[in-house]
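Worked example 2:
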Amino acid sequence: MPPAIPLATYRLQLTADFDFDKAAAVVPYLKALGITHLYASPVMKARKGSTHGYDTVDHSQFNPELGGEAGFARLSEALIKHDLGLIIDFVPNHVGVHFADNPWWLDVLEWGPTSPHAVAFDIDWDLLPHRARGGVLLPILGTFYGEALERGDIELRYDAGEGSFSAWYFEHRLPIAPERYGEMLRMVVKEADAAETEAGKHMVALAARYTGLRRPNRKEAPGFKAELKDIAGAADIIARGLAAYRPAEDRPAPTLALHHLLERQNYKLGHWRLASSDINYRRFFDVNGLAGLRVEDPSTFAATHRLVKQLIADGKLQGIRLDHIDGLRDPAQYCQRLRRLVRDAQGNTKPFYTVIEKILCEHEQLPHFAGVQGTTGYEWMNVITQVLVDAKGLEPLDETWRQISNRPPRLVPYVKDAKRRVLETLLTSEFTVLTRLLARIANGHYSTRDFSADSLRQALELYVLHFPVYRTYLTHSGPTALDRKLIDDTIAHARGEWFAADEGIFDFLRDALTMDLLKPGRPPHSAPRVRRFALKVQQFTGPMMAKSLEDTAFYQFHRLLALNEVGGDPASAGVTIPAFHEAMRARAREWPQGMTATATHDTKRGEDARARIAALSEIPGEWTSAVSRWKVLNAPHLALNGNLRAPSATFEYMLYQTLLGAWPLGETADAGFVERIQAYALKAAREGKEETSWLNPHEAYENGVKSFIAKILDPVLSGEFLEALQTLARRVALLGALNSLSQLTLKATLPGVPDFYQGTEFWNLSLVDPDNRCPVDFTARQAALTSLEAPDWRVLIKSWPDGQIKLAWTRHLLKLRNELADVFAQGDYQPLEVRGAHADHVIAYARRYGRAAAIVVVGRQFAAFTQAGREWPALEALDATIDITGYTAPGLAGSELPVGQAFRDFPAGVIKARAASAIRSARRRVRA
């Protein structure tokens, strides 16, 4: 049996091209590598053709494109045979909607609020303007509604197999409410001139049988459809009669008939651009095709987790990764329910590994949720990067960025401006829902009704602009002390920018956000509305921060791209070694079993590309000089037209960093590389929302950027630039490789569970998705691993560009983790003192459990020992000694370990050792 808490996980991205069977085929390789748990992307039925699985349309079945239930069974057998556990990525927050594949959503469209599945979706039914009846806005049209209607893009169809009617907009199915079937049948029979036929009479009689409001109702509808389906000749009459609803340029009556029919449905069709201002269902971020689920509803929770429970009960699932926990109304309640489900399924005899996708901002602490071992590890990825960068080099880079951007190197103004942009363009509708609800609360009592809707909107906007993290975690019982302080501090900052008369509006807003409005002795307000507002704000600030920080500011602030990572601080001043040690000691106490990631499917660039770019902090002067020269060389290739400059100066600076990070180790930029950079640049430019955006693409700017990239990477046009780029790229590649090996060593030996993203055993120079989700050549990796049974490190060092040194070091580290499982899974973390002139270039610590121990020594900032990246470091030249008092190991004498002895030829070392006395971990107990 695999351990309940993983020793190492390996993330696989499952797709139709890499399904359950192909995953099963690589299980032996993962076992040989030292992995204990396969960590799979979502496995439930997703939208056809999905490349990620996060658009789940049915939680109750396996994805047929991955091989369905039979394919999963084969994967499960392979895992059991090789003693590997399984962790799945699970999506509780949202499902894929629109199209024709989500049965719950289709039922809601057909029956509206009376659908038993309506409770599963977060829909504000009464918010559609200028409409007599409630409904849900469907922003699926590629043109204006009137144009789509008159052009015939919206087509009414009859399904003879179901006896049902639906409107179709290309691949989108829009069920017609059965209460309209009667009028439709009468119109269809008349249009087909079939009133005197037997089938026509039967159809009219069927329609006449169901009179009155809302008939046939849900109980009657199946019988109605079955009878209609069984009428001989009905399908032919309907096929002819639907011409009554078939628009044409010279036939206004059918256009009006279809329009009136659609206006009487439980939905309203609209142009896709309406989503930002008028949408009335909660989405995942600003993605119209992903609708939020209300898993706080017990029946929805039970239905969406039935398959998960069965897999746990059958012993086929050992862990779960919870996607987008911040989207849930009450994450604490959800985690409690999940823990109960796990205990019901497997008993309480062993832990069930549970981690959450939670983005923590700088200095933010993770709340404790029932049964959760930690996060997926973004915060630790950033701590590792920040301790490896050269803090002394960041100050010159600040000045370089200041000169290029004409702005101070501070992130906060970028985020604040981005939030304003997102509020105005992407999440306006969600914000409008909140402001209307807040206004209704204020209007509910005479003491607060004079707070105007506009003033409340402005006050709430200031609160959102100043809110510094992703969300608070209030429950129905109110805020924690930490959340209360966060709300109070944010209110204080918002109040500082309020120039109108205050007169208590911010006190009211604060009390609504904390639910203090409901305290005894206060003027009575609607408790359901206040709770809904306070909890719904939490679901809004997460997407708000994500779209503003990760998906906007990160693409505007380019001072050092290695720091622009999910959960990171692009303006960071780095992490000192003492601060790093303190963070790891705290982690060993609090979250020793959370994941440690260095790459995921969502990171902004591959782990080795990031490590390369981090090395620029070690040579800031050379880097700045190189950029200055490159800008002159490439100036003729800029697209200039009036005020247009493509790319902008800041974007050009970002491109040069990107080129160094992704430059192929073979040193030749082929057409495929050019296309990759162009694709990345297009996404980066649109995400940055400065010169162009997804909502309003600036074709001239985008073409200018594309042309610029093609020209500067053309050897004929830019030979001098490419020669200079390649010269620096070779040096940065070596410094980056050394950084990568240090990064890998830290990930594998620090407190936590190291997670390996698919394919990163070799150098990974990928960019943001979809570039980082390309197919992995596992055959090559398996062959290389087999050839490295007894690695010759000197040979591997000489051929380091081929990546085999990283693969061999990965297996070496995982072998040690398996041999010293208790040390790395449960052991304490003890910083070791380093003395000498080069002490600041060495991170040293011991992991220990009982008397078993491991001494870990990791180098950093290698430019000084490599002639700035020109040669492999002469590590014996490092003047540093580690104090290993209290530890013994074969080949070590005394209490001092020279760093050269620990490293030998390698930039890191892990030494098995024994502690002089047995010390057991004082960390918190394992969470079941």
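The longest helix spans residues 719-749. The radius of gyration is 30 Å.
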